[in-house]
Amino acid sequence: DMPVQEGDILIPENRNAVQTLWPDATTPYIITDALVSREAEIKAAFKMISDVTCIRFKKRDTESSYLKFVTGNGCASFVGCQGGAQQLFFSSECTVGNLCHELLHALGLYHEHTREDRDKYVTVNWQNIVAGKENNFKVNPGNTQNLPYDLTSIMHYGRDFFSTNGNPTVLPKQSGVEIGQRKHLSQLDIERLNKLYRCGKI
């Protein structure tokens, strides 16, 4: 079994595996038999992305790198194109919005609340985090693409994710802001993907 980090990010056993973008902004996929009945939900998650970017999802033909939708515990994905058959876990408790979040991981995005500049925008309450889940909240130096921090991102954790006592684990410093939505890509999510995949420049 693959170890799970950040709640839903899978780590390759070879940690030096290169995380890359999907060639030509096209992600081939197959749906395993156990998930055929949920194909409409999978396609709805694709549409959330393809409607606002140049990224396309296509049923695998002979491509050597592709996403393989499987059932399992929870929702989980690797970050970026790993090469070969790349599993993406979509269990019964996952919504279309959860799946869209996982697809953004597979396309190369990390969690928003682990950006290096996050402490300017959110407070992490370490004392409220379930023991052993602190990794999910560690800063992950990555490419922010010079775009601002996004509290409304579909890649941001909610207030009580991994809470041990029902109290907030992540609190926005700006009042009146909801975090952790899984209903749509934010404007900055869209910009980030379009920049990453050079949409309009292909």
From TrEMBL:
Stored SMART domains: ZnMc
All residue ranges annotated as the Peptidase M12A domain in the record: 16-200
Domain of life: Eukaryota
EC number(s) stated in the UniProt entry for this protein: 3.4.24.-
GO process annotations (BP): proteolysis
Root EC class: hydrolase
Matches recorded under Pfam families: Astacin
Cofactor: how and how many bound: Binds 1 zinc ion per subunit.
GO terms for MF: metalloendopeptidase activity; zinc ion binding
Positions of the catalytic residues: E102
Claim: Acyltransferase is one of the keywords in the record: no
Cofactor(s) needed for function: Zn(2+)
Keywords assigned: Hydrolase, Metal-binding, Metalloprotease, Protease, Zinc
SUPFAM superfamilies: Metalloproteases ('zincins'), catalytic domain
Name of the protein this chain belongs to: Metalloendopeptidase
Organism the protein comes from: Neolamprologus brichardi
